[in-house]
Write a structure and sequence with these properties.
This protein has 393 residues and is of the alpha+beta class. It has 9 helices and 12 strands. It has a single domain, classed as 4-Layer Sandwich (Deoxyribonuclease I, Chain A).
């Protein structure tokens, strides 16, 4: 794989240093906090990335006051190296491995938060998110007929495989692909931690439960929507409980893998869906997913994957605090230096310009693929997204 060379990194670093904010890197602005999400592909062993890559990633991440990371591997060596290179006084909280049962084969990962304690203070709640047994039992009972119909081919496969193992005749049976018709559990348990964003003395901080999620990615759009809706059901139920939720505001940060390859069609569909959540909440709280709409300075919604085709990564704000930005206020995003505002650090465009590559839409698919191969594994196949909030007043 032809990854970035030392000479190419020199060009990238020079271009980046000349204007670090040209490509959407959030500035440090007095009176504001920057929250974000970044899926760093397979962030594991330190020797899997070059010194140039680690320096570049640290330069990005230290711009955030609260950053949710996805695809942190079980080996925390790379995660810890990243935090060390960020310098300063950043603190962390990381989940256990999720997505695979201990001792069994599969790709598990951790979900992590990095935060700046000068602005963001951690609360006393840290947990994963799951549907309890009573909820699961009710789902099984309510949908037992379609579930039995769905798993029958797999049961038949198990019988056939057992006979094949005994007789060793003919080809080995292959397991059928089972697509569950209803949501049962998350492929990776979302991870949450409570935080307070503090402002000037004698001001009430924003009290926020931050949820870090890496939802299902696969061929089944239905499975992807089931996971998203299940997570929305959980969050909305917590927000509705008001004071009983302990923290009145929730923020969802993560790689939600929403099907967004046709932004014109998909944005309208998802917008209607999420506006339905607002109708459900009434005046109790507001649901705001700013990345669903084009930024006031843009004609198209931001893309968040490195191939610039999807908006997989999202930030969702579920707020009772009237000081936090609501969905109707999105049209005013970016009008004030302290925020609210949102964006994407488009390092793909930085790399393209620094390396003198023509606009990607003018290149043959083979040349586009070769360009992406330089950094999709070494840096990431996702770009970091951010939301700027004015500090509490």
């Amino acid at each position: 794989m032809a990854e970035l060379t030392e000479a190419e990194w020199d060009k990238i670093n020079a271009t980046f240093a000349a204007d670090p904010y040209k490509y959407g890197l959030p500035k440090r602005v007095y009176g504001s906090a920057v929250l974000g999400s970044f899926n760093i592909r397979k962030l594991g062993k330190a020797d899997k990335r070059t010194a140039n890559t680690w320096k570049f990633l640290a330069t990005i991440c230290k711009q955030f006051d609260l950053l949710a990371l996805q695809e942190v591997m079980d080996n925390l060596e790379g995660f810890n190296k990243l935090v060390d290179l960020m310098g300063g006084n950043f603190h962390t909280v990381v989940s256990d491995q999720t997505g695979v049962f201990p001792g069994e084969r599969g790709l598990g990962e951790r979900l992590g938060f990095i935060y700046n304690p000068a602005i963001v203070q951690r609360g006393d709640i840290v947990s994963d998110i799951s549907f309890d047994r009573s909820k699961l039992l009710k789902t099984l009972v309510d949908h037992h007929e379609i579930l039995i119909e769905t798993i029958t081919p797999y049961l038949q496969y198990l019988d056939a495989k057992k006979q094949w193992e005994q007789n060793q005749t003919g080809p080995e049976p292959k397991a059928p692909k089972v697509q569950l018709p209803v949501f049962l559990t998350f492929i990776r348990q979302p991870f949450c931690a409570s935080f307070q964003i503090i402002g000037h003395p004698d001001t009430e901080p924003y009290k926020i439960m931050a949820i870090n999620a890496h939802l299902y990615f696969g061929d089944s759009t239905q499975d992807r929507r089931q996971e998203f809706d299940a997570l929305m059901e959980w969050i909305l139920a917590r927000v509705k409980s008001g004071d009983e939720a302990y923290y009145p505001n929730f923020i969802l940060l993560g790689d939600l893998n929403l099907d967004f390859d046709d932004p014109v069609r998909d944005r309208n569909r998802i917008e209607v869906h999420i506006k339905g959540f607002n109708d459900e909440m009434g005046t109790a709280a507001n649901v705001n997913f700013p990345f669903l709409d084009p930024h006031p300075t843009q004609l198209q919604p931001f893309r968040t994957n490195a191939r610039l085709s999807e908006t997989f990564d999202q930030i969702g704000l579920f707020s009772r605090d009237k000081r936090l930005p609501t969905y109707p206020s999105s049209v005013q995003m970016g009008s004030q230096p302290q925020g609210p505002d949102y964006g994407v650090f488009n390092f793909v465009e930085l790399f393209r310009e620094a390396l003198g590559i023509p606009p990607l839409e003018t290149l043959p698919k083979s040349e586009q693929k070769a360009f992406f191969a330089k950094f999709e594994h070494e840096v990431s196949d996702h770009m970091p997204i951010w939301l700027r909030l004015p500090l509490p007043e």
